[in-house]
Amino acid sequence: MLFLCQSQPGKAYFLKREHKHGKAKALTVLAHKLGRAVYYLLTREQAVDLQRFVAAYPLRGEREPIV
Q1: Other CB atoms closer than 10 Å to residue 10's CB: what's the count?
Q2: N or C, fewer C-beta in 10 Å, the chain?
Q3: What are the distances in angstroms from CA 51 to CA 22, 25, 48?
Q4: Integer angstrom CA distances of residue 30 from 23, 27, 61, 64, 65
């Protein structure tokens, strides 16, 4: 929950998911995404790139517009 309070891009990501799936599912999606990111960072000893985190890995079935 601190992530949502302190991160504007994280909050935007959550609100987008909440609109589509509801609050409980959106929190689950965010928790799973954070868990994968933390595991990746710990195993590779890297720092967090928040912009890459919120932009990567859209939900399955959700497509980015082709420009």
Answers
A1: 19
A2: C
A3: 24, 22, 9
A4: 10, 5, 17, 19, 22
